[in-house]
Amino acid sequence: SHAVYPVDMITSRAETPKGYTPFYVSHYGRHGSRYDRKDDSMIHMVQRFNKLDSMGVLTEVGQRVRQEIEKITSLHKGNLGMLTKVGAAQHKGIASRMYTSFREIFTPGCHINSIASSSKRCVASMKAFNEALLEKDPEMVQDMSFAKEILGYARPGGSNNPLNTKAIRNNVDAFRHAKDTRWYMERKQYQKKKDYSAAEKMVVDCKNSLKKIDCSVSHFTTNIFRFLMFAQNLGIDQSSLVKEVFNDEVIYSIYLSQNFSWYNQHACADTSPIAEHLYVMRYLIDDMVLRADKAIEGSYPYVADFRFGHDTHLTPIVASLGFCQYPDTYLSIEEAGEKWRGYTITPMAGNLQMILYRKADKKKDVLVRFLLNENDVTLPIKSSKSPFYRWEDFKKYVVKRFENLQSRIKK
């Protein structure tokens, strides 16, 4: 979930069916690249490097890694959790491309509605997004809010969602922290595989040296990889140093472990607590459908609704709708790595766009399509025009989808 927005992964999209034009867009987006929320892990790693240095066991590569982590740590001072310049640019780019791609929606002087989580990085993301649209159309009327009463729609996985009761939140939290679950035990077993190749490049006699500072090899290498990769969110490219220290096998191993954890804690409806977590997303989805219906009827003042929140909400939103490439079943750690790639779903500034289309002479003949990070995604709905679906078919599917999630919840 620390991956930067994958602009290079945006592919060509399906052509709009003949005679249809877009007229409304509904969106949920994660905040853009940010500074880390806490710096204690970085500070601890700096302290560990200092101890290793005092022991005289750091290699030349280890000294360079130490310097880079010190630099990354220093840049966080006074900025914890805040949006970075990279994050603001991501949202401006997404907004600009949306305006260009769906020019018919954004008629001169149109009205748009934006809401955000009260988190400063989410509010800043909303403002950057709206600034880009205003540059395209200075006459655009923009309503923006992060008021308490709308937080359930910006953060549907939080306490402001009336469906997400305290009991459900407690069940989900207990599941995520339990150490006897299937996924936790499989991940723990996988992490027992130790690869010393990266640590050996940085520390002389790494097994004994790391033992003296009470740090496991897996913890040491995983955290260094995370810190160096996270630097992209600050506009610092450490890819050459990463490739020098970590081979492909180690990188893939780290990815598998982290991806597996995220999938099981936020997306996999195979287990009752997470099925509950996905079910409460209905609060937001129902609101999206209600507003879209008003836009179809012509009784809605806005041509677009934008929401800005967090990865812990975007992931279950995507999973709750059941996009066909994101399975509901339990997957092994390797299967999850191939079938559910979290970095393509919820990167920094990750977003889901729902666009409505209609024919000029048939206002009730409405199609809907979804873009995940600006790429077409499909639903298990019969359609001769996939990835475009009849709006009424989608609404029926939503009802059945949430009935299915509800059936997975233990009473």
How would you sum up this structure, described in words?
With 411 residues, the protein is an alpha/beta fold. Helix content is 50%, strand content 13%. Strands 1, 2, 3, 4, 5, 6, 7 and 8 form an 8-stranded mixed beta sheet that branches. β2, α4 and β3 (141-145) form a beta-alpha-beta unit. The longest helix has 19 residues, at 248-266. The radius of gyration is 23 Å and the shape is globular. The model has no long low-confidence stretch (mean pLDDT 94).
Give keywords:
single chain; 411 residues; alpha/beta; 8-stranded mixed sheet; 18 helices; 8 strands; 50% helix
Share of helical residues: 40-55%
DSSP strand count: 8
* H/E element order: EHHHEHEHHHHHHHHHHEHHHEEEEH
Q: Taking all residues together, what is the mean pLDDT?
A: 94
Shape: globular
How many angstroms separate the termini?
Answer: 32 Å
- Radius of gyration, Cα only, in angstroms? 23 Å
